[in-house]
Amino acid sequence: MSPRFLARLALPLLAVAAMACGPGPEQACDADDQCSADEVCEAGRCMLPGDPDGGASDASTDAGLDGGGDGGLEDGGTDGGSDGGSDGGTDGGTDGGGSCTIVADGRISAEEAPVVLDLPVKYLEADPADPFPVDLVGADEAGTTVWDLSGAYPGDHAVTIGASALAGHWFEHDFPGPFTGTVLVLPLEGDAGNYGVYERTGDALRLHGVASALPDETSIQYEPPIDVIRYPLELGASWSQTTSTLGTFEGLYFQSTDTWALEVEAAGVVDTPAGRFEALRLRTVLEVELPILVWPFSLTYRYVRYTFVTPCLGVAAQVASVEDETELLFTQAAELRRFSL
């Protein structure tokens, strides 16, 4: 397995959308004629006439980010609890339908991460051959941390990500379950050819394995599956798991022991080419141990990835380290993906 492919396994790209909050990131504009036929330009964003949210760029309105001294999501809003609260429990959870209502309580509940199948989300992705500079420290704006990922990066290209059902994929019988939630397939690398097989339950998004788009090439199962997201996401939440993988990679036998350590270690807002979004930042440290036949009888690869998760819209951005990164707040990235217009 190539290190490039290993790096792409570190975090999912959860394709979700908020029906109540709009179809996705609003387009920046200066005049109505820059928007679609049913939208108008208000406050610099394309939106439906009379939209009370005022566009995705107003993170403080949409999600209670008050710009105060806590530097993150407002902690004193409606009591969402673990289930998203009485006004956040819209039918947008594990069944893949309904709408999404943001509850300004400093966390992202399962109800604020509805799974919607076959709905494409546009991203800009930078994954050049050589590492490139990235700023993970961010800047302080009136007590709020702002990560600016809106500029141009080497190798930028547009990708479209969308979740699909497991049924109909050549590898569907390699993942028989049992499942207790919604099973979905997500591309690991834009429009290219590898997928993650996930299960969305009421309290987690679980990675069951990976597979190639081309039949009979790659199919790797995780036992046990990995909770790549646990709900509710909130600042300070952390967990770790170890899993054994088994299957085939490019037609050859493959196995490894993977250790995952995840932590929601920061909150703030992230600037993307599609606008500004409030976000919780989830850090994943992945160590993959591959057995070999000679001393030292195993090889270990280490990766760090940051995922910026925004309520109701899912993953606004994610940044992946180079192989065997030793620094948590690394300054050179191997891959960057963020919302695009």
End-to-end Cα distance: 33 Å
Unreliable segments (pLDDT under 50, ≥5 consecutive)? 9-27, 51-97
Oligomer: single chain
Report the C-alpha radius of gyration, rounded. Answer: 20 Å
Broad structural category: mainly beta
Provide a quick synopsis of the model.
With 341 residues, this protein is mostly beta strands.
Overview of this structure, please?
- With 341 residues, the chain is mainly beta.
- It has 2 helices and 20 strands.
- Mean pLDDT is 79; it is low at 9-27 and 51-97.
Question: Which tags fit this structure?
Answer:
341 residues; mainly beta; two-stranded antiparallel sheet; globular
Secondary structure layout:
Elements: H1 3-8, E1 40-42, E2 45-47, H2 59-63, E3 107-108, E4 121-126, E5 132-133, E6 139-141, E7 144-148, E8 157-161, E9 164-165, E10 182-187, E11 194-200, E12 204-212, E13 219-230, E14 233-234, E15 238-249, E16 252-272, E17 275-291, E18 298-310, E19 314-321, E20 332-339
Parallel strand pairs: 7-16
Antiparallel strand pairs: 1-2, 3-14, 4-8, 4-20, 5-20, 6-7, 9-10, 10-11, 11-12, 12-13, 13-15, 15-16, 16-17, 17-18, 18-19, 19-20
